[in-house]
Amino acid sequence: MNKYIKLTDAIAITNQTGAHETKKRLKELPGEDVKPVIRMKWVGVTPLTDSLQCSNCGYCVVSDEFITPYCPWCGARMEVPPDEQQGHA
Question: Is residue 78's pLDDT more than 60?
Answer without folding.
Answer: yes
